[in-house]
Fold this protein.
Amino acid sequence: MSTKTTSGVKQIRIRDNASEFKPYSFADCFVIKTDKIISAEQAAIIAIENGPKWVTPLMALRNLIVAPFGIKTSAPLDKNQKAIGMFPIVHKSDDKLVLGFDDKHLNFRIVIEVENIHSNTFVYSSTYVQTHNILGKAYLFMVKPFHKLIVAQSLSLVAKEN
């Protein structure tokens, strides 16, 4: 399976990079090719912290809507834990970065991986979600259409960034 989305970003078959997170209710994976040498953390910073500007007001609206349901609206960080955007870093190496947190309605992980092949770097963004209840299923249903757009546009920035 390979579906082209935005600016060279392709949706591909999920990678087996989160086996410790199974079973999941939802998973997807996107990839982009760039000629830059980049770490997984650098790619995540570009994609998440410099992501599409239209995402900021959308997230503000999301936070207003979900707060009455007790859903987290910011990253729950441990004392020495770092985050990229609103996503806490769960695991980090040069070629793999795992972000995410657990909440009462669902748990999720974002896995950013880089693979250097010849003079190209392939940057993969995988998302895994475990829903816990009807609230988690409803939330996932509502965000999935936006998720694909956000990931594709964010990942395309990795290839454009100088």
